[in-house]
What we know:
- By secondary structure, the protein is α+β, with helices and mostly antiparallel strands.
- The chain has 2 domains: about 5-55 and about 275-410, no CATH class; about 100-265, no CATH class.
- About 55% of the residues lie in helices and about 20% in strands.
- The radius of gyration is 33 Å and the shape is elongated.
- It starts with a helix and ends with a helix.
- The mean pLDDT is about 85.
Amino acid sequence: MNTNQKIAKVHLTSRFRQLLVAILSVSFGISMYIAMNSFMAGVNNIQTEITFTSMSHIKIYNDLSEDITPIISKPKDSNTILMVNNARNIQYTQGIKNADAIKNELLNLPEINGVALQLNEKVFIRNGVSNTSASLSGIETVNENKLFETAKYIVEGNLSELDKRSDGIILGVGLAQTIGVKTGNTISVSTSEGISKTFKIIGLLESGSKVTDKTSALISIQTARQLFSKNKSYATDVLVNTYDYNNAKTVAEKVRKLTDYKVESWQEGNDQLVSSSLLRDVLAIAVSLTILIVAGFGIYNIMNMTVNEKIKEIAILKAMGFNGKDVIEIFLTQSVAIGLIGGFVGLFLGNVIVQMLDIVPFKIASQNTLPVVYNLKDYVFAFSFGAIITLIAGYLPSRKASKVDPVEILRG
């Protein structure tokens, strides 16, 4: 330890309270940055998990064309007036009749993680005098589970039982409560074409989304095709998951070259979801960086006060032969020491806060505690940014101290 570092040590230890406040300022900023970003990342992850519980990264379906083809060509004669009122685009076919062929083609793309077919229709579900509308989904249980981990959200019964029982149905928890049924009861399902069939409830689904749980009902896709009198390759939706859901838009462009049906990535169909996720990230980073910068101002004030209080000592040091660089080294050593000690304490406190949040009971989706993410990148960034802010906050007063004229100070 050289002379400058020994002087810096004396300055730090002679005012313990100031040292403690400075260290706590840095620690508070870093710990809050880590806690907020870990929590917001957890919230975003759980939001994504809930979203992709029932929504695929890419959806292929049969939709009306946006272009309305004129039923009568424009007259060539300029004296003839053509008037067509209320022109409509008529859909001659519904659903996707060759869904299996499309699925096989999609599975050859290297970016695609899984494909599942669904047959979705609106139905009426009746239990005695209680009846309600519901969204009935005929699903491929194995592929569905691969895409959405549906089995994880089955709170009673077993998803694979749908393949074994043609009269088996799984209801959302909210839907079962609405019509007053439980596992083992029978219900009547009626289609819009007047076809009715009796099903036995073999399980209950709780996805974490109240809207989904109050309206969804699952049967096997083979049973759904029989119920709605469709061919063995019919589906209303081809659902596709990619290895990286952020890459869904790019993969959707490749899929459009394989089929004439409507191809939609989750970003294109959910602008609000993308915007709200982005806003949460921006808000968390803005607030946590503000905390770190405010902590930096606190250190600047403390170092500035130290320079003013020790102005005569600085003058004496310069009169004894210490130059401006020595003075800068003395005060920068102090700020670096505060930054390092505060940084390590902040990392420890931040990790403690995140662990405490991780055990706070809070039921959401598949989690029973508040959602948090332990991200090493947040810890490294918080420590680095805190150290840089501390260095800048210490350099400005030290530069001022290095310019002190000892003659003027000692004369008073």
